[in-house]
Amino acid sequence: MAKEHTVKAFTHELELLKSKVFDMAKECEGQLAKAVHSLVERDVMLARDIIKGDSKINTLQSEVDELAIRILALRQPMALDLRNIVAAQKMAADFERIADYIANIAKHVIDLESISLEKPIRAIVEMANSALIMLRDVLVAYQKLDVEKAVEIWHRDKEIDRIYFSLLTQLRTTMIEDATSVSPSTTLLFMGRCCERIGDHITNVAENVEYIVSGEMYHGRPMQLRSAQPSNPLSCQ
Amino acid sequence: MVFALRSKESPNKGGEVAIEKDLREEDLHAATTVEDGPVLVGREHRQTVGDATVENPRMNCHDVNVYYGDNHAIKDVSLDIGRNEVIAMIGPSGCGKSTFLRCLNRMNDTIEGCRVTGEITLDGMNIYDPKVDVVPLRAQVGMVFQKPNPFPKSIYDNIAYGPKIHGLVASKTELDQVVETSLKKAGLWNEVKDRLDKPGTGLSGGQQQRLCIARTIAVNPEVILMDEPCSALDPIATAVIEDLIHELREHYTIVIVTHSMQQASRVSQRTAYFHLGDLIEIGPTEVIFTNPRHELTQDYITGRFG
Predict the structure, then answer these.
(1) Could you tell me the pTM of the whole model?
(2) Which domain, by its residues, includes A12?
C-alpha cells in the first residue's frame, strides 16, 4: 500500500493528473456512446455534437501534458510515481487519438443516409460497440490498477480485428461486383478502419496499466500470452 | 530470490492459463486485484532483495555486523563490490550506510566501543585479519570525506605526503610525476599547476575536494570510498566531481554514500538501499529508481519516508 508523500502537494498533483486522464477517458466514452447511437439511428445532429465535443478532449490532453511536465521538472519523481506520470501522458495521447477517430466516424454519419449496404454498417456498429465496452472496462482496470482485467481487455481487441477483416473482405467483393459501390464502400472502409484503430489504442491503455503495476513495457508484444499467437495480417500496431 | 518472491505474490503471473479458458467475470474478480500499485516485498521483510553478488568482485562482504556498544548498527549485511563500478549507498540518516562504508577500510577501528563481525575481503584477502596492517590497507582503500580536509600544507605537499610515507617513490622527479598525474586524474592540474607551493586550504571548496581525491589517488588505491563528497559543494563543483567520478571508474572501484538520490542515480551503476542497519535492496541503479522491488525502497526514493 503506497503511503502518502512527505510533501503532500506532490500527492495532490499526482491525484489531479490521474483525475484529468480519467476525465479524458470519460469524455471519450461519452463520445463513443453517442457515436454508436448516431450510427444506429443515423442521427446527424448527434454526429455534429460529437464533432464539436472533440475540442474538449484536446484541451484536456494539453492540460495533462502541462501538468505532467511540471511534475517531472519540479518533483523529480521516481519509481511508481514516475511510471504513473509517464503512463498518464501516454494514455492521454491514446485517448486524444481515440477521440479523433470517433470524430472521424461522426463526420461520415451523414453519408450513411445514401448508403444501402446494411451488412457492413452493422459490422461497423458492432465494432464500435465492442470498442465502447472495452473502453469502459479499461477505465475500471486503470482505476483499480487491475492487471488481470487489463490483459483480458487487451485480448478482446482480436474480436474487433476479426470483424474488421471480414468487413474488408465483404467490401472488396461488393466493389468488385458493382463499380457504383466503390464510393460508399470506401466510406464504410474508412469508418471501419477508425473503429479498428480505436481498439488498438485501447490495447495501448491496457499495456500502460500493466506498466504502472509491474514496470514492464510491452512494445506491442502480446500481453501475458507470449507464444502461440497467430500472426495477424491486419495487425496495425 | 526477488523473482521467486514476486511470482509467488504477484497476481498477474500465470494469467496465460486463465485467459485461454473461457473467462467468467467473477473469476476475474476472484483473482487478486492490485489496488495500490506494484506488488512489492512488504515493509516487514528485512532480508536483502536483489542480487548482492557480482562476478569476480573487488571486495566481498559476508554477514557483516557492526555494534556500537549495545547498538546493533549493521545487521548481517552481505554485499559484493565489483571492479570498476560505482556503487551508491543510500538510505535515511542513521540507516548504517556510512558505518558500512567505514567498515571497508577499517575506519571503524578508530571508534571506541565499535565491534565488527563477519568477513570483508579485498581481492580475496580478509581485511580484518589481525595480521593486516591498516596503514597500507587505507592506501589501497582510500577515503574522501564530506567536508574537504586538505592538510594545512602546500598543494604539492598534500599530494606528495602519501607517496612519501608509503615509500612509493624513489626520487624527486618521480614524486613530481606522481603529483602531476594525480592532479591531472583529479581534473585539478590546469587550475593549480602554477601555484603548487600555495596552501591547499586556499583553494575553493570544490577544488579542495578534488585535491583530496588527488591525494587519495596518489597512493595507488584500488577502491575509493566517498562519504557524501559533494554535500558541502555548490551544484557546479558537484557536477565537476560527478564527472570526475565517472572518469575515475575506469581505473578504480568507487563506493559512494550520498543523501542525494539524484546524485546516486547519476553516478552509480549499482545502488544499495539501507534501512535501520539492514541492507534492504541492491540492484542496478536504473531498476532501483524506476522499479524497486521492496516497499521500503519505494517509500524512500519516492519521498514517502516516515
Answers:
(1) 0.78
(2) 2-214
Structural domain includes residue A229: no
Decide if A236 is inside a domain. Answer: no
Instruction: Report d(CA B77, CA B60) in Å as an integer.
Output: 11
Average pLDDT for runs of 10 along chain B of length 306:
35 36 36 49 92 95 95 96 96 94 93 94 95 94 94 96 93 96 94 96 94 95 95 89 93 95 95 96 95 93 82
The alpha helices in A6-108, defined as continuous H runs, are 8-41, 44-75, 79-107
DSSP one-letter code for A231: P
Report the number of distinct structural domains present in chain A.
1
| Predicted local distance difference test score (pLDDT) of residue A7 | 87
Smallest CA–CA separation between A191 and chain B, in Å? 30
Cβ distance of A79 and B36 shorter than 8 Å:
no
Q: Do A79 and B33 touch (CB under 8 A)?
A: no
User: Mind listing the pLDDT tens digit for each residue in A164-186?
Assistant: 999 999 999 999 999 899 999 99
Q: Which residues of B touch A144 (CB under 8 A)?
A: 33-35
Place of cell 523473482: B3
> B144 vs chain A: nearest CA distance in angstroms?
28
Contact state of A6 with B305 under an 8 Å Cβ cutoff = yes
CA distance A67 to A234: 36
Residue A234 lies inside a defined structural domain of this protein: no
Q: CB–CB of B23 and A152 under 8 A? A: yes
What CATH number did the domain enclosing A7 receive? 1.20.58.220
Residue type for A63, please?
E
